[in-house]
Write a structure and sequence with these properties.
It is built from 24 helices and 23 strands. With about 750 residues, the chain is α/β, with parallel strands linked by helices. The chain has 4 domains: about 60 residues, DNA polymerase, domain 1 (Orthogonal Bundle); about 120 residues, Nucleic acid-binding proteins (OB fold (Dihydrolipoamide Acetyltransferase, E2P)), CATH 2.40.50.140; about 240 residues, 3-Layer(aba) Sandwich (Rossmann fold), CATH 3.40.50; about 160 residues, 3-Layer(aba) Sandwich (Rossmann fold), CATH 3.40.50.300. Helix 7 packs across helix 8, helix 10 runs parallel beside helix 11 and helix 20 packs across helix 21. The longest helix has about 30 residues. It binds adenosine-5'-diphosphate (ADP) and magnesium ion.
Amino acid sequence: MSHHLDDPVTVLPGVGPKLAGRLTDAFGIGTLRDLLEHYPRRYHDAGAVLDLGEVEEGTPATLLGEVLDWSSRRIPPKGKRSRPLHLAEGRVRQASGAVFTVTFFNQHWRPATLPPGTVAAFSGTVKRFRRELQLASPDVQTLGTVAAGADAASAAQRLDHQRLLAVYPAVDGLPSFKLNELVAAALEVLPSIADWLPEAVRDAHGLRDLDGALRAIHVPADHADRHAARRRLAFDELCSLQLGLQWRRSQLEAGTVGLDNSPVAGGWTERFLAQLPFGLTGAQRRALTELGTDLGGTRPMHRLLQGDVGSGKTVVAAWTMLSAVDRGRQAALMVPTEVLAEQHHRTLTELLAPLGVNVLDGLRVAALTSSTPVRERRRILSELLTGELDLIVGTHALLEEGVRFADLGVVVIDEQHRFGVSQRVQLKEKAGGSAAAGASEVAGASEVAGASGAAGGTGGSGGATTPDVLVMTATPIPRSLALTLYGDLDVTVLDELPPGREPITTQLITPREAHRRGRLEAFIRTEVAAGRRAYVVCPFVEESEALPGKGAVEEHRRLAEEVFGDLEVALVHGRLSAADKEAAMAAFRSGEAQVLVSTTVIEVGVDVPEATIMVIEDAERFGLSQLHQLRGRVGRGGGRSFCVLFAGWSTELSEEAIERLQAVVGTTDGFELAEADLHLRGAGQLFGSAQSGLPDLRLARIQEDIDLVADTRRLAAEVVAGDPDLSAPEHQPLREEVLRRYAGGLEAFAALETG
Ligand code: ADP
Ligand code: MG
């Protein structure tokens, strides 16, 4: 009988519905493929497996056998040792019949985990004790049980000619050795597994075949074998990820042409640059060159602009938007929060003021959020539709039904990590004209990339056109991650800060230095007297028992009433109405309030140059990049600046939290921090929060595997360039693999498939 990877695990001998259910509950394992993709966590290196007769005292060895029994006793205090010791002593019989002992001190639980009948490998240094061989506190790898009817002899044999034994993520009731058995059984019933990668590709990248890799990752002959297997399987993960992204991009662009949005000589873009009060940084100039090429290209632009806080992305964004206006089109800037929308609207209006904003012959600029009053909203919608409005800034309210553009040329999306892939697609779909106007307003998956249909705005001509998209992120992303996450985007980095950035000193204050809180408050007072301002950021709006940590409301009361009675302390958090938020921000901006207590609503984009102090309460509650973002709110020209992190005041600090906070204290370089973050958290979590719907990376590690990331990205681009649809017969296996890995995930992608 021939089995297939997609068969349920119940095809394996001894796997009934009960065990299958447990596998599903514990690990989400349903099929043989799931089982084989439940990769080992590590490997037990048995070293040379020896017989008792060959073992010499004092040498490291691994001895195999079946646990016979346990005895335990207390060893009374003696000498310097003031407490009694608990000694558990187990007798283990080898296949040859010879018996050795294993001893564990103060591990009361040991005997219970290795009951009589357990077959295990014990690794340690051999001692001779009362004529018996003994291993003290050995490393233990359970292989099976005799009592449960498992084939202990074969388990032992397995290790006998296999030094590296896979150790799996396990749970109670499903120990690693059980998984070893199941995997072995699966590998036995499966015929050779077909390879989805063409041989030429494998050869070109020095990859082994899939069948061999899947077997070797579980049952490696040696370390080299294991490494080769991991590399091949990691390549698969990254390659299908990149193929999916590139394929999706080509699908989105299929049948569409890029608009010519290149800047016009003597147009808005040129006048904009001419009136800027400062010269562009080298990085900004390079960015404009790259963008200019994209904007004029026949492919729609799809570019990621990365730059640390304060690197000057807004100028680049404004210029990009104006290039659409140069061509008589509109541009939209989409941001994640209302505060940011207001902020950007104001910044943009100020930046463009010399060109004339909302005056006759000037640019028409508006902001649209969910708290825009109904009448104004109606006016804005109508002006968007007639083309009167040139530039619009907004939150996801821009995605709502009823928002239609006359001719949307450029879309800029700020702080992309707050949006999902599908939203990126949605805004593009609102382009107007006869482009894909269809059912694209709803955040639902299947509607996202629907075909055209319901007419959009006016200007539709024959071929569907797609606006140029610029995605901006202030979260510095390590190159490895950018290439992975944004496999479908071209990347521009603003790696140079404008001159005049003030240095920021960062300090960590734990409860052990409680007196420093008073000193800080005195310092804030001095700074305020010198015309400067301070942020105080709290993790919560209100403290709760479930989540201990400072609440902004209470901290505001404390500071306003008890500490800074003579100053004006403003409060802003997400539960306030938009008007209250805006009022608080305005007071702080103008200096009417000198201290602003807030939650992370001020995390991004807010720009108050006079602010020189950033106090973050319960800093361990924030992610590393969040802390960096918050710190970026100071040092913006108001003088030497300070960031003070209070940590450990409401929770015990974990090792990881300390490392994270020390990384923030140690450097203000966003890219360095991003690497540290990636290192501390692993890519998995970054993926989870950054973009849902991408396939799992189980084996690939994007920092260590940066070469694979780059290789697969290039390969995917080549494949999709030659076969935009992945429809060539020889690409059928690639297509299937990509769809399988994206299953249920990348909504836009799935919708295109059915659309
Ligand atoms: P980002 O959005 O990347 O955080 P901004 O665009 O908000 O940065 O710029 C931060 C500040 O630097 C703003 O006040 C902006 O006017 C100013 N700025 C931008 N580019 C330059 C430049 N080339 N020279 C001097 N100041 C600049
Ligand atoms: Mg900005």
